[in-house]
Write a structure and sequence with these properties.
This protein is of the alpha+beta class and about 675 residues long. Helix 9 packs antiparallel against helix 10 and helix 21 crosses helix 22. The structure holds zinc ion. The site of zinc ion has 4 residues, from helix 18.
Length: about 675
């Protein structure tokens, strides 16, 4: 619910890399199946204070210690299967080019990526491409030790119908009994709902309602239903003890208010009491001053079809000072932007407050955030805490950057961008222009403008979110091309705006359709908004050919001929969208959306998908973590060194060796 996994098409598209030019892609360290593994760097780590470096080191150790928990939460036999495969993989002394071995290696890599034997995105169980007989032989040959009968594990891997999905959300089915996730055992959906509804009812009208069930497995044994709580001394204790060990070290070196926050988390891990978890979250969300920050705990509930149970995850990070300065500058100039907005002056806000977004650099990913990770985080999840104490929203800059770097050489821009000058500008300014577009959209766009007297803000109904995103995007696009941006030091030249304008229009009117199945309409609000702006702009500039479709060698391209006039068009669009919002003009909003944002030209749709899929771009990305090493003089820590390993297999074998604390069956 609160994790931002949404990536703009620009980034996704650029983030994907084809099989061509493999050798020249230093950011991609591995490829298998539908995945590429990217490394990320931690810029400015060297320039953090020694104390913060040590703090990051301890929190990073804590982040790695919970890895087994995620495997076990995803499926009860995941740890057994992972260990069996790793044992065979590392002991194997036969021909490593044998197709059976190669297929098993691929399966193991997929398992490391998904923290289990189900696909991280589709939730479907992997289909092994090695045989049951071969695997069984290797199991015996290399003496795999297991708490579970070999045949049970063979069935789990090879019987297609067994544990077919990790997470079944189909309406009308018992989503608990049909999901292979390990949050419940021996229960039906009705029993689970009854159990938690009774708890919620008993609590009555609590102004600070507990997130019941968040940190436990619910089990039915011999007719009795009870929770096995994840805590020190409870379920997952061996891993949580290690997490707590490193958190205690971190607490020793942390300064206030972080010190108190870490202390509250330790208290919660020891008690398992969700009131303690809330106390930790309140303390965490109030701390907006500490340089180092972290997520560590049972946090997101996407893996439970009923949304009670949270998966364990961790992210360790520190403030990206440069990027935070950028959003501060924007925020400081908020009133100037509002006063000059190309809209009816009556709809400008008299007093506007900019929001400065926090941009972070990730230093370590763990649990549910490793190896696949979000590019933004918005926590905590408890609604009452969000309402009473606010939430923290961060964007993860170094991960976005790594995606971009990994996209170089994908062939995407060669395929879809006609002019060399546009490609060059996108390459040089793409990152900055995307960042600023996001900053302007988030820090100013949504907060700008005001309603006319009598308008309530609910008039636009089902069209409201697409129109609201349109408004924020137009605000960003319009101001990205303003000389004010140079004056306040945010861009070196208006080439940054040109890069954004060309890629935005291309994405909105064309390349984003690659993500939509043939015959389907555009539904998602952000995708609608980009299509609306782009196709409406083409229409508005038609006579003067501001934007033009060009056909070359049978392929369609879209080209911006006049960037200044395009900016004027963005201004006119913003004026009209603001009028629609301020006046609550439902009919006008509906007309624009229905005309420009929903239906895709079927011919173009087909062409875009064919060209896109011909690039063989892997749709999913995972990461390898950096590694940290303490530098000591005697007993004294004098520095922490960061390095960037480039081997996904080695990193995972290392984690399984050094950070594996749970028994195979929990
Ligand atoms: Zn938005």
């Amino acid at each position: 619910m609160k994790k931002i996994v949404f990536v703009t098409m620009g980034i996704i598209a650029m983030a994907l890399t084809s099989c061509k030019e493999k050798a020249e892609q230093p950011w991609i360290v591995d490829r298998f199946d539908d995945v590429k593994i990217i490394r990320y760097e931690v810029p400015e780590f060297e320039n953090q204070s020694l104390n913060d470096k040590i703090l990051i080191y301890y929190l990073a150790e804590a982040a790695k210690c919970g890895r087994d928990i995620m495997f076990d939460q995803n499926f009860k036999y995941n740890l057994t299967i992972r260990r069996a495969l790793e044992k065979i993989y590392t002991s194997y002394d036969g021909n490593k080019e044998c197709p059976q071995f190669v297929a098993m290696e691929k399966y193991l890599k997929k398992m490391w990526l998904a923290n289990g034997i189900h696909h991280h995105y589709s939730n479907d169980k992997f289909k092994p491409e090695f045989s049951r007989e071969w695997f069984s032989e290797q199991w015996d040959k290399y003496g795999v030790e297991s708490q579970v009968e070999k045949d049970v594990i063979l069935e789990a891997i090879f019987n297609e119908n067994l544990y077919a999905t990790r997470l079944n959300q189909a309406k009308g089915q018992d989503v608990i009994a049909t999901s292979a996730g390990n949050y419940y055992e021996g229960l039906t959906q009705a029993e689970v709902e009854k159990f938690y509804n009774a708890m919620i009812k008993k609590a009555g009208n609590d102004p600070c309602p507990i997130s019941y069930g968040l940190n436990s497995k619910l089990v039915k044994k011999e007719g009795k239903i009870y929770e096995q709580t994840y805590k020190v001394g409870g379920m997952y204790s061996p891993a949580l003890e290690q997490v707590v060990y490193w958190l205690e070290k971190a607490q020793e070196v942390a300064e206030e208010p972080l010190k108190t926050t870490i202390g509250l988390l330790i208290k919660y891990y020891k008690s398992g009491d969700l009131r303690d978890f809330d106390a930790f979250n309140v303390s965490w969300v109030k701390d907006t001053s500490s340089n180092v920050d972290f997520v560590n705990g049972f946090t997101e509930v996407y893996g439970d079809p009923l949304g009670y149970k949270a998966s364990w995850e961790s992210v360790v990070n520190f403030r990206d000072k440069k990027a935070c300065e950028r959003t501060q500058i924007i925020s400081d100039n908020a009133q100037w932007f509002e006063d000059h907005s190309p809209i009816n002056p009556a709809y400008r806000k008299k007093e506007v407050k900019g929001v400065s977004a926090k941009v972070i650099t990730v230093a370590m990913l763990g649990g549910d955030c490793y190896p696949t990770t979000p590019i933004g985080i918005n926590l905590p999840n408890a609604d009452w805490i969000r309402k009473d104490h606010g939430s923290k929203s961060v964007t993860i800059d170094n991960i976005t950057y790594a995606y971009k770097q990994a996209a170089q050489g994908s062939g995407f821009s060669e395929e879809f961008v006609l002019r060399e000058e546009d490609r060059a500008r996108m390459k040089e300014h793409g990152k900055l222009s995307d960042d600023l577009h996001t900053d302007l959209h988030e820090c100013l766009g949504h907060g700008s403008g005001q309603l006319a007297p009598g308008t309530t803000g609910t008039e636009l109904g089902v069209y409201s979110s697409a129109l609201e995103e349109t408004r924020a995007d137009l605000f960003a696009l319009y101001y990205l091309g303003d000389k004010k941006m140079i004056e306040i030091g945010l861009i070196p030249s208006l080439d940054v705006a040109k890069a954004q304008y060309a890629s935005y229009i291309m994405n909105g009117a064309m390349t984003q359709f690659s993500r939509i199945e043939l015959g389907k309409d555009v539904e998602q609000a952000h995708m609608r908004n980009r299509k609306l702006i782009s196709e409406w702009a083409i229409d508005l500039g038609k006579e003067e050919k501001v934007i033009e479709w060009v056909v070359k060698d049978g392929k369609r391209y879209i080209v911006v001929n006049d960037f200044d006039k395009l900016r004027d068009i963005f201004g006119k669009q913003l004026c009209e969208i603001q009028r629609i919002k301020s006046e609550g003009d439902f009919e006008a909003g509906k007309a624009l959306i229905e005309k420009y944002a929903v239906k895709i030209d079927p011919e173009l749709h087909k062409e875009v998908r064919e060209r896109y899929y011909a690039l063989n771009i892997e749709p999913y990305g995972g990461f390898v973590n950096p590694e940290y090493e303490l530098v000591k003089e005697g007993d004294k820590i004098v520095d922490v060194k960061v390095s960037y390993p480039a081997n996904f297999v080695e990193q995972n074998l290392h984690y399984s060796d050094k950070y594996s604390f749970l028994p195979s069956i929990n």
